[in-house]
């Protein structure tokens, strides 16, 4: 009955202590890291010491710690730190854009399926079946290889990642709200479907959807960096985290720092989002457990 | 007197899925029901769970489409569901739900929810809507300081008052109350019932009151229809029907209500399984539980027959008695 | 049950058809393979001959019907490079991929599930915390980073294992390990949360309250009920036995399906790419089908439900 955050059901034999109010250390660290990444992405142009394409052939493959190039330089003498800032920006923009597209697309399809049932529902299920049948990496590989890679296509394509998750959640919650709950009551008041979905159902399912977004976001980062690593994602001269690792791979023995920097950034970012997402899920959404 | 609501021969069939092989089984939830609701009248619909009374209530509102038969409201046929005319008509007919917490959006303040019908139907200005909300809250007995509360901060009875206030916001002509008090504490039930009676008297609206609680219905309603497995088995003015039930099922229901000063040994105890709409017995649906069932009850479905001027019942035996009386 | 199975089979067939159509549309719409394959300086009549040879001059819908018909008769076309049958080229690579993915699957199952269940049963212990951290690390580190780090350590620094190529079983160790890490983390996490959820259910409390032995509670009541979500993940892993090694095969220059896909994609070798897509989809659809049937067996409630 009470809508206070319910404590987790205590498992057999284990007495759980009341949950601490404070943000756990790992989550705080994750939030800090994410904030840092967002700052890097937003102010990349201001804080990077060099232009990302600026070559300095006399300082090729300088190791980290070299004055002026704190993270070293790559095979063309470009500053790794500057390129890292730009990569963070590109990767975050792609992942963010794609997460939004996927959430909007999936939620809309889920609502449509809940509203019209029947044939539309079957179509959505079919689309989800299709997506489940072809691993996303393989599908993107085929599309990107044959249409050529561009930023817009990349974001659009990544925007299809994980939509079925939102669709399933949105459909389920909309149907349960419509069967007997507040949605049915509002329909009965004479509200248009638009009003029912936008003013009532969407705000009620938002927290669940946001939690799903924290699950999709790191997966999209991984997917994009994987594609870029294979040379099919972000194309030079632009740079992304996966693309840097991909090119740095050739210098694994002589200049591992080219690859390690972006690799560490990818790891920390996805790790942080996962930690924060798990924490958010416990906080916001008692129903998902 | 012209009727506000006229329902003729309503049919609603659900297709259930049963068993492993998933053979579709039609369930006749409402099976040929006709009703009249006068202006300012309160009609009670009683029956056990599974009798189809809630489905009937939603059909009268046009929320559940009728698969057969017609509903006419204020002389005009019910527009198709989810059309603009249908939505506009919602301002004139409203519903009160069994579970008020489920019927309210837990993210909106109660003032916003009471106001919502006015927003939807674009009635009045910003200021007049706010005034109307204050007025409504006062009318249903909510304190002004509760306007900014959320549904979960109120008690069950208060929530039901919010739902009632919302239903009255557009000055509807008809209110369908689907078990409005059965989820409330007994001590609160009387308060809400009294509130409904008072509001009905004040505004002169017509009301359909669906309940399995005979005491409440008797208390509140002018006329009563008794439902069994999707059909009306007896109908008549509340006073007469409760004083002198004619259908064996009504007799059993009425005698099951404990009354002070009455001995228990005269009670008719219902036997057998409760009715299952998916397995409707042939003939009179009530015959497996009826103490007086004869062969004709097992084969022929009895039609509603008039009993005197203002009553009807659907029972072979009662019809026989009446004919005998007349002869 | 028969109805359920036939409905499911119908959906599976529909899905495969959708994948075929997708492959066809993407591959044919995206550019002229003749141009790509023959280069820019080739005279027009050579291009026309090439297009006629490969049926590229006919209207698209006729190409599509011909393509469907050919696939139904088991003809997946010829590779545009070298002219060998595409199916043969693809099937030839399957064993190499399976050499990596089957041991990796075995590792995932035998480490991930026990670790998750153990962590769930000893919730909030040090080991539980360790499992959580390792699991999250496992699936947040991208496989290409993991692979390169392993190469850096075991090949370059320690010189113990080869950094790439196909040969002795030593060559398979690093790639197989790389593939399994993410899956171990994912399975550990899923098994843990599935187990925790089941252990909180009333029937578990009832079982232990009425004196069922703790071991029997876990094995007899909790595990079968936690199995449904775990089976979903495992089904996905079985389905990706062929597709799941694209990145890793690239890192380790392993001559499997993934390498073939990347190479064919960059050569625009339509027939081979189509063949690989279909093979991957067929394997995935089959394993999803098996998972759905397993659900019915594991959870009787799901049996009578309609398709979605």
Automatic annotation (TrEMBL), chain B:
Membrane topology of the entry: Peripheral membrane protein
Cleavable signal peptide: none
GO BP term (any one): peptide transport
Subcellular location, record wording: Cell inner membrane
GO molecular function terms noted in the UniProt entry: ATP binding; ATP hydrolysis activity
Domain ABC transporter: 5-254
Keywords: ATP-binding, Nucleotide-binding, Transport
UniProt-listed InterPro entries: AAA+_ATPase, ABC_transp_ATP-bind, ABC_transporter-like_ATP-bd, ABC_transporter-like_CS, Oligopep_ABC_C, P-loop_NTPase
Tree of life domain: Bacteria
Classification via Gene3D superfamilies: P-loop containing nucleotide triphosphate hydrolases (3.40.50.300)
Family: Belongs to the ABC transporter superfamily.
Protein name: Peptide/nickel transport system ATP-binding protein
Automatic annotation (TrEMBL), chain C:
One Pfam family from the record: BPD_transp_1
Recorded topology in the membrane: Multi-pass membrane protein
One GO CC term on file: plasma membrane
ABC transmembrane type-1 domain span: 94-295
Transmembrane segments: 12-31, 98-119, 131-156, 168-188, 271-295
Compartment(s): Cell membrane
Main location: membrane
GO molecular function: dipeptide transmembrane transporter activity
InterPro entries in the cross-refs: BPD_transp_1_N (IPR045621), MetI-like (IPR000515), MetI-like_sf (IPR035906)
Keywords: Cell membrane, Membrane, Transmembrane, Transmembrane helix, Transport
UniProt cross-references to CDD domains, sorted A to Z: TM_PBP2
Family classification: Belongs to the binding-protein-dependent transport system permease family.
Record protein name field: Peptide/nickel transport system permease protein
Organism: Actibacterium naphthalenivorans
